[in-house]
């Protein structure tokens, strides 16, 4: 098995014929980028393309974990976004309320849990440098134990070095898929073929650190009915639910043999 390039991933060969598909977070903080978007929003495609291009622009997964969360509140204008979920709209609104934003909007980028409007400028590079320079305040581990066209089974571990910091800290887990596309036949993007990457399919959390500074669990999460396993992956992050600050993030694309 070949290792995935530009990611803090350890591919450990087993004595048997298989190998583990795993990732471990590093000593520095990896940034979480949440893009709130909609196929019913005419100003969203440029942001979708920006998110898709992060990897090709040199933003390796040890620097940034990008996630695309499609909201459902634009469905009423004529096009129902097949990737949208009400829980993503709810999360966006809650983050906005915690930051006392007057409103939420699309496309909206949340960087480390905070509204970041300068995502398309050099300010993003500068912000990312500052985040990556910070020592990690949590450790994450991911292992894809099985993956087929229906589901991914993942083992996730989260550790907090400061045992006294677990009161307000929670963990999230998500599955995503790349290389998705939709032919839009109504609404503001009528006639367009929209392409997406890092589209969140399933979302688990918040999960509390109820028994101490370490949390380990195994989850089987469904994929899309026509999912391509090789285009899928998992991501996890640890967040302070009171301040919305993200302590650490990690992603693991499906490993190819």
Write the layout of secondary structure elements.
Blueprint: E1 21-24, E2 31-37, H1 45-52, E3 64-70, H2 86-98, E4 108-111, E5 114-115, H3 122-132, E6 139-147, E7 151-159, E8 169-177, E9 180-183, E10 193-196, E11 199-208, E12 214-222, E13 232-240, E14 246-253
Parallel strand pairs: 2-3
Antiparallel strand pairs: 1-6, 2-4, 4-5, 6-7, 7-12, 8-11, 8-13, 9-10, 13-14
Number of domains: 1
Structural class: mainly beta
Low-confidence stretches: 1-18
H and E order: EEHEHEEHEEEEEEEEE
Main sheet attributes: strand count, strand direction, barrel closure? 4 strands, antiparallel
CA distance, first residue to last residue:
5 Å
**Residue share in helices?**
10-25%
- In percent, how much strand structure appears in the residues? 35-45%
The value of Rg in angstroms is 18 Å
* Count of alpha and pi helical runs: 3
- Overall geometry comes to globular
Number of strands: 14
Mean pLDDT across residues:
89
Strands in their spatial order, largest beta sheet: 1-6-7-12
Explain what the structure shows:
With 257 residues, the chain is mainly β. It has one domain (21-253). 12% of the residues lie in helices and 37% in strands. The protein has three helices and 14 strands. It has helices at 45-52, 86-98, 122-132, and strands at residues 21-24, 31-37, 64-70, 108-111, 114-115, 139-147, 151-159, 169-177, 180-183, 193-196, 199-208, 214-222, 232-240, 246-253. The chain has a four-stranded antiparallel sheet, with no helix packed on it. Strand 6 and strand 7 form a beta hairpin. It is globular, with a radius of gyration of 18 Å.
């Amino acid at each position: 098995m070949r290792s995935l390039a530009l990611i803090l991933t350890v591919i450990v060969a087993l004595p048997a014929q298989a190998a583990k598909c795993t990732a471990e977070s590093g000593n520095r903080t990896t940034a979480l980028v949440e893009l709130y978007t909609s196929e019913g929003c005419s100003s969203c495609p440029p942001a979708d393309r920006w998110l898709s291009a992060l990897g090709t622009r040199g933003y390796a997964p040890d620097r940034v974990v990008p996630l695309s969360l499609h909201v459902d509140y634009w469905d009423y204008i004529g096009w129902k976004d097949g990737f949208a979920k009400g829980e993503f709209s709810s999360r966006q609104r809650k983050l906005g309320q915690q930051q006392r934003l007057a409103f939420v909007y699309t496309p909206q980028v949340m960087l480390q849990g905070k509204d970041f409007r300068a995502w398309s400028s050099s300010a993003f590079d500068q912000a990312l440098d500052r985040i990556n320079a910070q020592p990690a305040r949590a450790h994450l581990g991911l292992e894809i134990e099985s993956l087929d066209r229906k589901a991914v089974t993942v083992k996730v571990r989260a550790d907090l070095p400061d045992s006294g910091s677990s009161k307000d800290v929670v963990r999230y887990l998500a599955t995503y898929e790349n290389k998705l596309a939709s032919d839009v036949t109504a609404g503001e993007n009528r006639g367009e073929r929209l392409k997406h990457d890092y589209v969140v399919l399933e979302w688990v959390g918040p999960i509390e650190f109820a028994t101490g500074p370490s949390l380990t669990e195994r989850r089987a999460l469904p994929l899309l009915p026509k999912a391509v396993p090789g285009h899928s992956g998992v991501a996890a992050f640890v967040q302070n639910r009171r301040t919305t600050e993200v302590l650490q993030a990690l992603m693991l694309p499906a490993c190819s043999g």
